[in-house]
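Lab notebook, bench 4. The sequencing result for the construct came back, and we need a structural model before the next group meeting so we can plan mutations. Quick request posted to the team channel:

Model the 3D structure of this chain.
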Amino acid sequence: MSHAVQERPVTVTPRRPLAHARLPRWTPAAVAVVSIAAGCGIGLAAGWHSKVQWGLISALVFVLGTYALTTKVEGSRQAKDRVATSLVWVCFVLAVVPLLSLAWVTISKGMEVLDGYFLTHSMNGVLDAEAGGGVYHALLGTMEQVGIATLIAAPIGLLTAVYLVEYGGGKLAQAVTFFVDVMTGIPSIVAGLFILATWNLMLGFGPSGFAGAMALAILMMPVVVRSTEEMLKLVPNELREASLALGVPKWRTILKVVLPTAIGGITTGVMLAVARITGETAPVLLLVFGTKLINPNPFEGAQSSLPLYVYEQYAVGTDAAVARAWAAALVLIAFVMILNLVARGIARWKAPKTGR
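Done. Here's the predicted structure in token form:
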């Protein structure tokens, strides 16, 4: 008996391509160029004279154009990824452009009078409205005041952070952490008024660079504590345990293992604190007073500083005084940059060697 075999129709599923359509690598650059042109065109057509408005329109066109083009070619899922990347680039540009603009304006205006004479002479015998004079007395005052403040705040902040991370755990540590957080938000004028009330009014000392340095140290301490604390927390506990297992005392473990491991971050934190206090004017104005003369003694007599010098010269308002203010601002930026480079070199030199 034969059975009839019924053949079923075979359905062939179309193969999906393994590789989806992709935009060329130069697409973001091309979209950026088109967006800049579109932003400038819209700004000109609307009669907007602000380049900031042109930039914001260009950024908006860049994000929308990237999303539309990627959705059409690569799909909506990839378009969302590219939009996120585009937003990151836009935020980066928005952060860098003001910085570059500030650096360019400061350099272009500051180089008009910045020379060897400006760096090696003071304002002694020079009227504020006249051309000439220099910034040597202010540069010397800034170096001494910032140096003294760092000598006061860095060891105290470092030891406080070591206590909080390595030893603290009770109510005292919580209280110290609370007061450090409070001190982080203290305005500079409050620190200056505190030193003025205690050092100058109660104890009877006169204006001096040391008084200004103490106020700057108050502003510097919480930054050092917070940054050092976070760096010490990043040191793996395995390093501590290995050192303690070998019988090394805890204080020696901290000194020889923990601190050298975190020295790079600690140095960076200290330099951030130095940069924070270098541009302060209010404590110097209250406690140091400022002077046109060269005063190398920070413990007696009025002293000048770069931020105060910039403020005083810009307040005069004449072309010569404003030019000196821009040059002093450029010197201040260079001073902080040099300190950062030196600190990075020291941190790299002292950091533990990881290579074999």
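The chain has a mean pLDDT of 86.
Will bring this to the meeting.
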